[in-house]
Design a protein that fits this description.
It contains eleven helices and twelve strands. It is α+β, with helices and mostly antiparallel strands.
Amino acid sequence: MDPTPLALVALTLGVLLGGGVATLVLIALRARDRARVAASLELPDGTRAVLFGMDEVAVVVDGSLRIVAASPPAELFGMQEESTLPGDELRELVRETRRAEHPETATMRLRRGVELRLVSARASAITPRLTLVVVRDITEHERVEEMRRDFVSNTSHELKTPVGAVTLLAEAIDSAADDPDQVRHFATRLSAEAARLGQLTSRIMSLSRLQSADDLTELRNVSVDEVVAAAIESQSIAADAAGISIVRGGARGAHVRGDVQVLTEAIGNLVANAVAYSPSGSPVGVGVRADDGVVEIAVTDRGIGIPENEQERVFERFYRADQARSRRTGGTGLGLSIVKHAVQRHGGEVELWSRPGRGSTFTVRLPAIEAPDLNGMKTKRRKKKAKKTKKEARAVARAEGEPT
């Protein structure tokens, strides 16, 4: 028998068997490699690049809660590579994620520098040994939401008082229909409550406009003298009734860029507060200073003053340092909040100095601008008026058939 065919058959069987064994070995090696990768602390491909491009705080931690990779913002919360994940609550969140074997989310407070911040943290396993933790700072969001709730609550409360008074006074007028003196008395009080309600509504709308995202639209070169004079004039009746003199001093001729109505209301609110909280016979000063590109408008009184622990809160909506006096004077609790937002919308700031029993000084600082060329403006107006006069004269002449 020829041995050649047998050799070929044997060789073919050997190749087939050898290939099968080789395939099985290769599969086993790949499974082993996958198991090693899963059990190792090696980051999946591209993880560092993704973390580097994130604006949020994000870190990857190993089984011992050691940070193996971190996004740049994570450093603000003290999370650097090779350091231990900070915060007991955050570490417990990672442990819970591993036990539950699915992502977990929790709200907690974490320290950023010396400040505690409210954050929302989410932990997700990316390998059996590595966990991704993403932290989102929600402090400002929570603060805005709290302010919104307070605003709605306070507004409802403040509106309820004059609305209730109007209702009761209307009923009193109806009951006293046969008594003219009583009717006049209740009608006077009704008008006062209606005015208070109108003032409160107007101030709420003003504050809402100032807090909106829209820019101020009525911007022009504004004379500070014009603003101060209008603000003082708006409070002159109240000041005379209280026996208080308003004294204007300081620099003249300063100008700023802004909305004259908004600025006048802001300074008027400061003067109104000074008048309301000053004892009868005392002066209220309004001073202006222009220096180094800044215009300062200071309103000073010799009133009751504001305790130091309340000075940060006086610019909050509806906050009153003296509840009883504010009620008597008909204050809405929105004046200083309007001042703050009005000044900020003009790129400025407002500061307070106060001592109980010695009085208060509110100082508004605004960016100054060069005073406009008034002579040039007057010349332009004269030329424009003369041109208009000539044009009207020609029109009359044509109408009468005279040569122009």
